[in-house]
Amino acid sequence: MNNYTRYSTHPNDVKNYGTEELREHFLIENLFEPEQIKLVYSLEDRLIIGGIQLKHKTLILETFEQLKSEVFLERREIGLINVGKWKANIMVDSELYTLLPKEALYIGRGIQEVKFLPNEEGETKLYFNSAPAHCSYPTKKVTKEDAEVVELGSMENANKRTIYKLLVNSVVTTCQLQMGMTELHPGSVWNTMPAHTHDRRMEAYFYFDLEEGQTVCHFMGQPQETRHIWLQGEQAVISPPWSIHSGVGTSNYTFIWGMAGENLDYGDMDSIKPKDLK
């Protein structure tokens, strides 16, 4: 299992970052490698952002040095979403869960072993977020049909999108982790516009379902001091609490949003009018 640490940043420092520094601190370029679990340990609310890719080999979610724990979920919870084309088989202690594409699984604190098993259909790809947890809640699978679904935007504004709230407090009980998925309709390219911030939690975005040769420009920074990062499919961006998180693509795409922090209210955000962005 490969892991890396990303440190927290101050907005005044980020104002002085060039392109390479922005990418080094906030962009996660390589989340998937064959037969591996890869992750980044962010000191923004101590969220872990990771990817799992396997075809032939069983992989085990193991602890690592920064956690100082006997097992990965000793003091943590985790949410996984199947971002591959085939089903994913996950063994949680002695119980097997199967996720179809774009289905999610929440696993609570205290689970001793999580295994990712090969399947006969094809390669497995899972994206995950993990946050510290103060107590234990039951493991729960969430399908797109189980999710709280919201339709937002319009074709006229190129931001018509469907939001699937998968691992949120209206669907599954968690300590602080929230995850969901936003699908942009064909012809729409803007996400999370109008933009917002939320001082009470950080966020990570994972972009996928992007056609070959297309790209996404992710916007970040304080509302009056914005910056941008160009990225490809199956890449993620860390968004500190003080930063907006919005983007525009050269085609439509899907992204997964994951949050950790003190407030589980999905609507807790400080909106910024488009005309006030600089």
How does the major sheet shape up? 7 strands, mixed
Which CATH C-level class is it?
Mainly Beta
Query: How many individual helices?
Result: 2
Quote the beta fraction: 35-45%
What overall form do the CA principal axes indicate?
A: globular
Helix content: under 10%
The count of DSSP E runs of length 2 or more, i.e. the number of strands, is 24
> Could you report the average pLDDT, rounded to the nearest whole number?
95
Second CATH tier, the architecture: Sandwich
Question: Helix-strand pattern, N to C?
Answer: EHHEEEEEEEEEEEEEEEEEEEEEEE
Low-pLDDT residue intervals, each spanning 5 or more residues: none
User: Number of folding domains?
Assistant: 1
Widest beta sheet: strand line-up: 1-3-4-11-6-9-12
Cα separation of the termini = 40 Å
Class of secondary structure makeup = mainly beta
- Kindly report the CATH topology: Jelly Rolls
Q: Would you identify the CATH H-level superfamily?
A: Jelly Rolls
List the quaternary state of the chains. single chain
Keywords summarizing the entry:
Jelly Rolls, 7-stranded mixed β-sheet, 7-stranded antiparallel β-sheet, 4% helix, 4-deoxy-L-threo-5-hexosulose-uronate ketol-isomerase, isomerase
Describe what this molecule looks like in 3D.
With 278 residues, this protein is mainly beta. It has a single domain (2-276), classed as Sandwich (Jelly Rolls), CATH 2.60.120.10. The chain contains two helices and 24 strands. The protein has helices spanning 11-14, 19-26; strands at 2-6, 27-28, 36-42, 48-54, 59-60, 76-82, 88-92, 95-99, 104-107, 114-117, 124-132, 140-142, 148-152, 161-167, 178-184, 190-191, 196-197, 201-208, 216-222, 225-231, 235-239, 246-249, 254-261, 270-271. It has a seven-stranded mixed sheet, with no helix packed on it. Strands 2-21-18-23-15-14-13 form a seven-stranded antiparallel sheet. Strands 5-10-7-8 form a four-stranded antiparallel sheet, with no helix packed on it. A hairpin with a 2-residue loop joins strand 7 and strand 8. It is globular and about 55 Å long. The termini are far apart. The mean pLDDT is 95.
